């Protein structure tokens, strides 16, 4: 539709993520991470994609906890996410070790 459309620098800056809300930035970050590990278009259920989604949510909640350190309900939810990610990673380690190594290395997870 807009093939060959050239944007000026001012217009391009309006569409950058630096002007987006925190939710938009996190959503974009999560989407880019999930696209790296998708087995096919629209894949949201494979183990690698689930680990990326959980890691993004964990990072978001860790940022929240740094500011609100007395928020015990968020702490409990964060602990549950750690357990869920650990279980998915254990499953990946058993079933598809190469994919497991790739995910752990790319996300910088310590094992």
What do these coordinates show?
The chain has helices spanning 9-14, 22-37, 47-67, 72-95, 97-107. It is mainly alpha-helical and 111 residues long. The longest helix is centred in the C-terminal third of the chain and has 24 residues, at 72-95. The radius of gyration is 17 Å and the shape is flat. The mean pLDDT is 88.
**From the alpha-carbon coordinates, what is the Rg to the nearest angstrom?**
17 Å
> What is the global morphology?
flat
Strand content: under 5%
**What is the number of beta strands?**
0
**How far do the termini sit from each other?**
47 Å
Low-confidence stretches: none
Average pLDDT over all residues: 88
In short:
The chain is mainly alpha-helical.
Task: Provide keyphrases for this structure.
111 residues, mainly alpha, 5 helices
List the helices and strands and how they pair.
Blueprint: H1 9-14, H2 22-37, H3 47-67, H4 72-95, H5 97-107
Helix pairs in contact: 2-3, 3-4, 3-5, 4-5
